[in-house]
Amino acid sequence: MSKIDFTPNYYGPNPPQPTPFDRLYAITHFIMPNFGTMDWDWQTREQVNENLLKLKDEGGNLNDDIMMYIHVPYCKSFCHYCNFNKNHYPRQSKDRLDLYVDYLIKEIDWYMAQPYVQARNFTAIYIGGGTPSTLSHKGMERLFTHLKKVVPNYDVIEKTFTGEPRSFKDIEKLKLVKDFDFDRVTFGIETFDPVLRKQIGRVDSREDIDELFTNMEKINYKGDRCVDLMYDLPGQTFDGFVDDLDTLVNQYQPEEADLFGTVYLPYRPMHKLIIKERLEQPGTMWQLLAMREFGYDFMTKHGYHNTIAETFSKRDAPSQYQTAHCGRQDIIGIGCAARGNVKDMVSINPDKIEDYIANIDQYGISSTTMQSIRMDGILDRLMVMFPRFKEIDKSLLEKFKDSDRYGPAMKILKSHIKAGCVEEQADRYVVNKMGVVWHGNLQTDYMAHTLNTQGKMLLKCISDKKKHFARDTRFGTNFVTKFILGNPELFPLLMK
Questions:
Q1: I need a labelling partner for 495 at 20 to 30 A (CA). Which of 38, 228, 332, 435 fits?
Q2: pLDDT tens-digit profile of 209-245?
Q3: pTM of structure
Q4: Which residues contact 121 (CB under 8 A, 6 or more apart)?
Q5: Which fold has domain 41-325?
Q6: Best CA proximity match to 55, nearest among 365, 360, 321
């Protein structure tokens, strides 16, 4: 990759504002259905079972590596911006948390008994949510103990646990994470501004954040502290985002930070509040671009590597989980609403806990969709994730030369090179700084042909033409938003 250029395009006094595209897609692929034309919800149990039989043999793998994602959907409060699968914390019946762990263990055991899984090289465990740190101390210990027992090379593979500051006031839970060798702890901060935190539904406080970092020091935690920070929040100014970055890097110094653009969708709480004029509009599209680019420059100047499009790490390589998420490894999806991919198949678990439990009782596994995407689908996934992963080997692309998608994918790739967002090297293609700033557009180009009518309507809601980039009011009510608001069942509600 060429030397990073810190000359700003979108921030500072009178920036030149060149644009490689005439339209900006404000968020990236992951809120969209990865393969919007596929009938995920229409598979019969017989079709699911037929595909599950493919796990009885060791062949058919594109990836030798595999990791495990475990989803814990419980939260003590709901943030207005969140698009993940979540359920209210069972305050009146906390034994439901331990029951859920029982079923996680059952599903783990089903997968670990399959020859295909046994033959793979395990690289990572990632426990996400929801809020996994809401599990009881007993439940966490049982889950960790079982994982250590059944997952090959548990002691040396990468292990990530997701929590939130309030839950980790129970320092004994944090000690468990350390004692079971979880080398990455990730949690959301989003913003340090108390007014913005309240507006987006964060009920934890700055004091809670301070206590979490203090607790990590108390127990001498040596793993990576990975935090989320958001930009393009309702009413957030550019200077406010700069202050957040400065506080994060100079006061807390995490080993890794994810800078996420805020996801706005008309059927989600925060967008609804904006439409009802109970929250301020986010800034202009020009401000969004300025925030993206400044975040890249600021973090890089302060010694962080841009390992994944939105991720900045003191390590120079992406995590195993990020590598898997970008299509370079297989993923076993465990838990309510969890998604995975094995061989040429994508699995999706039901999003309701009762359905999840009932399926495991009856079948040993919960997936309601285990669908083959074949080589065309695998290439789609690789190309959609390429702008996020930032590079792709030419030798990997060669494996898909016979795919019907290969020609169109290469045509799009060449257009991104011409636009100045991707650089061709001898053995690979690499996304540069401009491509990172515009990676939502790059991903959308590869994804657009897979979208059905509903997907295209969502794209319309999350994008705008260059002539409107300076518009102060980005969101309002029109035909598209009215239709989406009136028909939420037609649109993807969950990211996991």
A1: 435
A2: 999 999 999 999 999 999 999 999 999 999 999 999 9
A3: 0.94
A4: 64, 65, 66
A5: pyruvate-formate lyase- activating enzyme (3.80.30)
A6: 365
